[in-house]
Design goal:
- Chains A, B: It holds the Pfam family MoCF_biosynth.
- Chains A, B: This is Competence/damage-inducible protein A.
- The structure is a homodimer of 242-residue chains.
- Chain A has 242 residues and is α/β, with parallel strands linked by helices.
- Chain A folds into 2 domains: 161 residues, MoaB/Mog-like domain (Molybdenum Cofactor Biosythetic Enzyme, Chain A); 65 residues, Alpha-Beta Plaits (2-Layer Sandwich).
- Chain A has 9 helices and 11 strands.
- In chain A, helix 3 crosses helix 4.
- The two termini of chain A are 34 Å apart.
- The interface between A and B is large, with 68 and 68 residues.
């Protein structure tokens, strides 16, 4: 059975204007590989209602899982929850269990439960909450769409709580082999290797370090035996690597 | 006249598998702001021909400019040039000017001009070359689609050569105001401020540093006078910031 597929939707003007370097997609990409969910697309869009609705509909219908990051805080530009509700044509309002979680979180810390904070208890009907051990305000899952915070430590905590719930396939395994030569000088040999092993995926990633060209060769497979066979072939083809 | 719009398409399995943390989109986002081109979307997809063709068509037809990064090197997994040619329904082959650039580059460095390297002279018909002062192999523009390398220092050098060619609008200017308070505690006031200044964009970006919550408030405008008026209002509303 093929692995389930996924997309990540990052929501926030601050990324499109170059103010913030997004890191949640990279973090989640690494986690999805470990549980055997194939990430097929990452998309970043701005804080604009119609764009979020359209992207949530497009990506949730074309992938098994959709993860979103950003736009669920207490301020006027936090519009993700309402957009996701509209995308799935569900009503949205303050939900009692989410309100209770926030109330308990603030009470324990002597923090005032303001009207703005109550905004974070607005949850689309029928959604399942995602635990937020960092700052209380929960994320939520509507059908296959998992809505999480943009602040990195909160996003990571939500992912940790969410992923065990989702069914993964076989993890994608990788082995790397580093060559201190330009990519072009091994391209023909690598192409021949890839052609000889149609069941494996071979990638080639050039880099520059201290003015010297190098290339990382990567072989990927879900089957560990096939992976090791491919890696052995890679090492045999390029004995000068490490 | 509104600013031109843009999208960035990043191509590479290594990003979707979490192996590489993508940085070219963040770099280009910062450059586009400076020249007044509004970045509306960043999309990351894998090294898959049909996906690249579909994404290039969708993003180039819905934005004034499309910038791509990745997949134009010499190896078998470098398939961007062929996919872009198909997206714009143009033939592709080795082009004499691109071949001459590569030949001169390698000759000057005593590097062999292999068959694999010749792959990098494959350019869609009618494309305009983008200079690569780092490693020779050019990028290219087909209509509104600008195809550049994924290696960061090459990508940045190509962007530097390309951007002056494109017509920009008014640069988006920003001013920031940092508060060492949680976002929720200023949400109501910020919402009121945004409502009172409909011509300006106010953003709110929470962060955590050394266990304390803080919030960066950002006002954005293309008109410097409007920007300063908005920033003065922001400072007046939140005198405890800095």
């Amino acid at each position: 059975m093929p692995n389930p597929t996924a997309a990540i939707l990052i929501i926030g003007d601050e990324i499109l204007t170059g103010r913030t370097r997004e890191g949640n997609a990279h973090f989640l990409a690494g986690e999805l590989v470990k549980v055997g969910i194939d990430l097929r697309q990452i998309r970043v869009i701005g804080d604009e209602h119609a764009s979020i609705v359209a992207a949530v509909r497009a990506l949730s219908s074309s992938h098994d899982q959709l993860f979103t990051s950003g736009g669920i805080g207490p301020t006027h530009d936090d519009i993700t929850a309402d957009a996701v509700a509209e995308a799935f044509r569900r009503p949205i309002g303050v939900r009692e269990d989410a309100r209770a979680i926030l109330a308990a979180h603030y009470a324990a810390r002597g923090v005032e439960f303001t009207e703005a904070r109550l905004r974070m208890a607005r949850i689309p009907e029928g959604a399942r909450l995602i635990d937020n051990p960092v700052s209380g305000a929960p994320g939520f899952s509507v059908e296959n769409c998992h809505v999480m915070a943009g602040v990195p430590n909160i996003f990571q905590a939500m992912v940790a709580g969410l992923l065990p719930r989702l069914t993964g396939g076989a993890p994608l395994l990788t082995r790397s082999w580093q060559m201190m030569v330009p990519e072009a000088s091994i391209a023909d040999q690598l192409g021949a290797l890839a052609a000889a092993h149609p069941g494996l995926s071979f990638g080639s990633y050039p880099f520059v370090t201290e003015g010297r060209y190098g290339t990382n060769l990567v072989v990927r497979a879900t089957d560990p035996v096939a992976l090791e066979a491919g890696f052995a072939a890679l090492k045999a083809a390029f004995p000068e690597g490490q």
